[in-house]
């Protein structure tokens, strides 16, 4: 039965979206061949080294995850570190999907790719968190966390040497924030490196008026619980803008954003999947980009961005132009203000993929490094933590020679002979948190909806504790900017 706590809050306080709200994803195209069957309970497994486990939490986490796995199914990239091969020869995603209500998980099970997943790794319960962090963390989430941890443990036992865990989720949903927060605390105890791929709350879109609460409670708990790892931040406003401006999608929906994220996450994680694990692995990436555990929020960009529909190529073509494009604030997958001069940056890494000369890439990186150092008005790194741009790729040979996968034409982002991704620890990411805290302050000043959270067993003090943590986080970014 629904009570006042299980009802989704209304959106009257939420900032109005500038374009119509996203539609739910349309179903994937029918596959010509029936997918292989799911694994039986006692099938023997083959083991492979340096595995990556993906955990998808809540609607956003699962829907983006389903798009990311679909891309790999369609490309036929059944790589052993992300797929488990069972003795029948079938490859099963090393993926755990969890939601508090059944609909989203059921739609994955009933999709044409549904039988490719291990059904025991698709977990759902009866009632969602109704956009409420406290339900995701305390009441409903508490019922799910143990079965979830058992399932993750089983997935870990099927690994030879797990290199890290990718966690996909939203900041705004009750499960995405609350359950993920609970999960992150438990994963942190296990010391396995974790990389989050969250949908952060965007300045102009919100699916509920309490998204700022959920987001502050999630981010605050990451800060005061010292949760390590890194977080590659994206938001729907930035994703819609990229779909509209570069990919010719008139009214983007989650169908488009999720397939875009699937494509770029595939580019970004390619080094972790393909390269020499000794040099490109989760720990190396996190250590190169996160100088202090709390400053773990990274922004992402890639080039070229051109639509599969357009006959012309992107204007940004040379290695140098593409690399420059990736450093501009307005091209990030997270909404940041356009700047006259970029930076400072704490750390940054570039991933090149496709056909390029080794010397061309080296020249570009040298040029960018010089540019950062000599001109105070252009891209620059922080004095506090002077650092150079790194290549995430372990092997430059591999990077230059790697063949581009034939991306299906149903995807919006046109594949290119050469692509570049940047992941940066930019200090202006603090802007995104300022924006969030501002929205939080507006509703918290009136104590609006606080009773929904307190009614689910959360102490009111958690609001102010998390809000203080966000202020400290912003101050840490500020002090690094000032070189202290
Ligand atoms: N990009 C993208 N964003 C999504 C998707 N689904 C939801 N969101 C965003 O995620 C936030 C809402 O979180 P959800 O993931 O729907 O919520 P949940 O984790 O399922 O939590 P509850 O439904 O409250 O139990 C909003 O900011 C939505 O805009 C999706 O498929 N893709
Ligand atoms: Mg949900």
Automatic annotation (TrEMBL):
A GO BP annotation: microtubule-based process
User: Ranges for the Tubulin/FtsZ GTPase domain?
Assistant: 80-276
Q: Report a single Gene Ontology molecular function.
A: GTP binding
Chain intervals for the UniProt region annotation (Disordered):
1-47
GO cellular component terms, alphabetically, are: microtubule
Query: Which Pfam family is one of those matched by this entry?
Result: Tubulin
Enumerate the subcellular locations listed in this protein's record, separating them with semicolons: Cytoplasm, Cytoskeleton
| Keywords on record | Cytoplasm, Cytoskeleton, GTP-binding, Hydrolase, Microtubule, Nucleotide-binding
* UniProt protein name: Tubulin/FtsZ GTPase domain-containing protein
